[in-house]
Amino acid sequence: MMADIKSDPDAAERKLLQGMRKASLAEGITLLALIFIAVPLKYLAGYSAATAIMGPIHGAAFLIFLGMLVQSQTTKGWSSGDRLLLLIAAFIPFGAIASGRALKRKEETLFAL
Hints:
By secondary structure, the chain is mostly helical. It has helices at 2-7, 9-45, 49-71, 80-89, 95-111. It has one domain.
């Protein structure tokens, strides 16, 4: 399998897009959990451990997504505007839904699935 990816640049790009969709979903879910679960638990119930736990988890998910976004600079068919929109969506609750759809469309466009 690894030899296929190394010999076929399209397979590597497709794998990157699929990974970005997963990373975007993870980032979006952790953002929602942080905003709608952990922060209310901290301020309404006095349970500050919720943000102490969820904050770093979301931070790690965001950094992974950001790393994959930077890695996408080598992928064909991407503009700076595409990457900027994905980055902006990462800061918006439920933005991962739009990102996931955009990444799926990009994958279908680039690889004519």
